[in-house]
Structures are given as structure tokens and as C-alpha cells.
């Protein structure tokens, strides 16, 4: 849960300082906390001068906050704001509305907000205006909370990089620069975990298999053993980027995808092919959307749209209809989950080396394509700009992006764009050039 701090600024000279507006605003903000899933974790007494501001800023930094709201109850000059602008915290400047709109000016809070936003700060500031119950305040505040959940996931998550990237997938060898804690492990740890799985555990897991399948339970024993081993290795981590081929099918005679899919049903997060930055994007999208995120390839293009596909590791939450365990399309061994991806809006995030990112989205039609998990992207957008699917494909290729799209449920590009701003990630613009050579060093 996000920890929010609140600092009211009340200059006694203004009439509005005597109305107890900060008390009402705090109560209204606390009433929002259950709806928006945050904790008003630290509130200081109203700040009225520079010395109080310095003390409050030090206390705010010690409170381990995810976001600090500086509340203009009345007007404030730069000497009261400066200590807070220097804090290494996501900061919001908030002005309460005036209690009346004629006669003597009661608070001058909006002017204070204007002054505050004109001051220099090295990192972004979010402005907010109105009472907490107002639609404008609510929508802007909720967007910020969503964005900060993504920030928190990318700064505080602990992940396992199991086996490194798949062979030849050189774009997947970069480490995240957001603060994500990465622990590396060799595939030998997977083989040891497989050896430790008891036959009785496999029997118990198989007894609960109820998904339609082209295989008997006996033929799925190795897959079930792999599922148990992966679950153990994933304990204590927020996600795992796994090199699931070629070693697993060559050594075990099975693909890892159905095991990954079943674990995803239970809340585990796996990124195939050792795509560590893809995993980071999944974790951010999940924190923002509250639903599982997946990695997909661009597999085909036609006038109907862009076909998104992967080997069959998506959770049932993404299924448009029934699912089935079938043979892998290429190796012919068990097992992958076959299903159409759910129709509806989607959002995407691709984190890139060099503090760059792509934010994208669109609309899935619910139509099934190739075996595995697949769907047709019939509407597309890039950094919240609506474009044609053909233009989406051109932009993706023109930017020479890695071949995994991170896709989450729902329209969250606004939150993703704000998250990138808080993290200092440069969002790449749409690149619609379809004819000129775009290769670069």
C-alpha cells in the first residue's frame, strides 16, 4: 500500500487560515484512502513559516513516504516551499478551492499553487486542485497513485534471472536501471530443484488437473514436476525471467509453457526467454492494472491488424474462451496452453537500456490466431496517440525494439506515462516513417 504524506500550508494573515479547511481536507482525503488503496501515513501540523517548513521537510524524508502532498490552504511564498522541493520524493502541490468567489479574497491558494509550480526542481511535480471529492482532483490523484504503484514495483521488486537470456537473444541481456533487485541463478539450480520434487507431490498436483488436454496425466508428469520445481525457485521473488529453452526441452522432453501458465493462474510472474526488462515491464503493469501482464511477439500482419502471439504461457485470466493443453507448435512435445486472448483494451510498456521506454496500447478483438496464446490487435496507440495497426508495426520496427511486447489489461497509458516521468525514463515518440532506411549504430 502506498504511503502518502500531507503538509498543510496555512498563512495566518489570510482569512481562510481561520476556517479549519485543512482539517476538513484531511478528513476527506482519509475517506478516499479505502477507495484508492493508499494510507495517509504521515500528516504534519500546519506550516506557517520557513523554520517550520525546514523541520517538516526533514520529518517527511524520514517518514518513508511514496508521495508527499503539499497542501496550499492559503497562499505561500517560495521560502516555505523550497525545503520540500529539494526532497528526493515524488511531490504533489495541491490547492484548495476558495470558500467564496466575491468580496475579500479568502485564501489565494490557487495563486500559491501557481507560484509553487513556477519554482525550479530537478524532478517532476504533480499539481492538484480542488476538494478531494471533486472529480478533477479525484481523477488526477488516482492517476498519480496508479503511476506510483508502477514506480514502487520497479524500484523495490526482487526478481530472479534464471539461466540468463535465450541463446542469440542479445537484446535481452540488459539489466534494469530503475532499482529492481536482480538475483542471478544458473539452470543447475533448476535441475537440483527438479531432483528434490517427490513423486507423491507430483501425484497430488496431477490429481487436481482439470484443464482439457491432449495428454494423459501420465504424459504430463514431467510437466507437473517442472511446475513444482519452478514454484519453489520462485518463492521469495516478485517475478522470474527464465531461459526456458533450449535446455529444458532438450533435457526433459517437455516445454515449460503449461507449467508457467498454471503458475501464472496462481499469481506467479514469469518472463520467457530470459527477458529481464520484459519482466520489469510486467511487474509495473501488474502493479498499475491489478491484473496479470504477459509477453507477446508480433507474429503476423494483415489488413485486419497485428497478430500477437506467444508459446502458451498466459494465465486463464487472459482467456477469451476455453483453454486446452496441446503440443508445442514447433517441437511437438507437451505442453502449452492454447487459447484466444481476451477482447478489450490493453496497455503496454517496454523498458529499454539507457533510461528509455515505450508506452503503447490498443484493442484486442478476441479472435484466436496461432496455436498458443494469440490475439489480433485491431486498434493501436503509442504514448496515448491513436494510430493505425500498420503504423504501430512501423514504429516498433523503426525504433529497433526487442521482439517482446509487454501487454497488460485495460487502458493505463496515462499512468504509464506519468510513471516514466517519475522514474526519469524518456518515452520514445511514435515513428511512422515507412519508406526511409532507419538503421543506426
UniProtKB/TrEMBL annotation:
InterPro entries: Fucose_isomerase_N/cen_sf (IPR009015). One of its GO terms (molecular function) is intramolecular oxidoreductase activity, interconverting aldoses and ketoses. One of its GO terms (biological process) is monosaccharide metabolic process. GO terms for cellular component: cytoplasm. Keywords: Carbohydrate metabolism, Isomerase. This is L-fucose isomerase and related protein.
